Every structure is written in C-alpha cells, then in structure tokens.
Amino acid sequence: MKKLVLIFALSIFGLGYSQDVPKVLKTGFSKEALSQKLEDEEGKSITIKQILDQHKGKVLVIDFWAGWCRDCLKALPKAKELEENNKNIDFVFLSLDRSKEGFEKSLERFEMKDKENYWFASGWKNDFNNYVDLNWIPRYMVIDQKSGIAKYYAISPEDPEIQTTIDKLLK
C-alpha cells in the first residue's frame, strides 16, 4: 500500500521539472509580447522591445529565474559558467520574484547586481510570458543578432543546444 501511495504522489507531483515542451517553437515575438513592460533595478519601466533593441547585433541569452525558485538556484552556478564561457555574447536575467523587495533581495543574495536584470512587476501572467509559453522556471532562450528567437526552449543552462545555437550564430 505504501508503494502505491508513493507512486501516486510521484505521478501527481512529478520528479524534478514539470515543464511541458511547447507544441510550437516560435522564432519571433508578437507585437503584444514586445510591448510587455518590466522594471529595471531602479524601478524604471522598459519594454521587451527596448531590451532587445539594446542588444541588436549581438547574440543574447535570456534567463528566466526567481530567488524563491529552488530549481533556478540549483541551475545558477551552471548559468554563471555558461556566461563565463561566452564573454562575447550578452545575458539578460528576467526575474519572476513576487515583489520589488524580493527582486532586490534576490539580486543581492545571489550576487546578481553586476548583471543586466529586469523584473516582471505585472507578475507571471503577462503578454510576454504567455506568448513564450512560460510555464515553469528556470527557462532559457537564445536570441539572434536580429532579435529573432534562435533557441526557444531550454530548461537548463547545461542544455547542449544552447551552446550549439550560440556557436552557430557566431560563425
């Protein structure tokens, strides 16, 4: 009976990640997604389009994370390693912390202050996250030099397709 209960519990709560791979791997952003607003560390509003425009001409990795997310924190050392091994590309960190205070504390606590960070003040459910099928974090996307999506879906910074995509874009 105990084995049956354990199997049932594991089937409900899953083992590790419970992300569902999106059915359509998008290669661009909708107008609504691009107009989604975030806040920078100073509380200044910025759109996804403005962020992408700042990185046009460069390969960009977007890292969705939060300080309360155990899986994100486990992935953080490997995310930092990916960044360290790719100094010639840009990284942007999009926080899903639940409050401005939580965002600020996470940046301090996890030594993220020296990185480019933004926070979804609107919360998890918004035009951008809905468009990119964000159903779990961490999540990683690779954006090409023209602001197109080169790698739509990765749940770990160790996903070999991230590095392969980066290498192809830099050729």
From TrEMBL:
Gene3D superfamilies (UniProt xref): Glutaredoxin
GO molecular function terms listed in the Swiss-Prot or TrEMBL record: isomerase activity
Record-linked InterPro entries: Thioredoxin-like_fold (IPR012336), Thioredoxin-like_sf (IPR036249), Thioredoxin_domain (IPR013766), Thioredoxin_ResA/DsbE_sf (IPR050553)
SUPFAM superfamilies reported for this sequence: Thioredoxin-like
Keyword terms: Isomerase
CDD domains referenced in this protein's UniProt entry, alphabetically: TlpA_like_family (cd02966)
Matching PROSITE patterns: THIOREDOXIN_2 (PS51352)
One Pfam family cited in the UniProt record for this chain: Thioredoxin_8
UniProt domain Thioredoxin: residue ranges: 27-171
The protein, known as: Thiol-disulfide isomerase/thioredoxin
Species the sequence originates in: Chryseobacterium geocarposphaerae
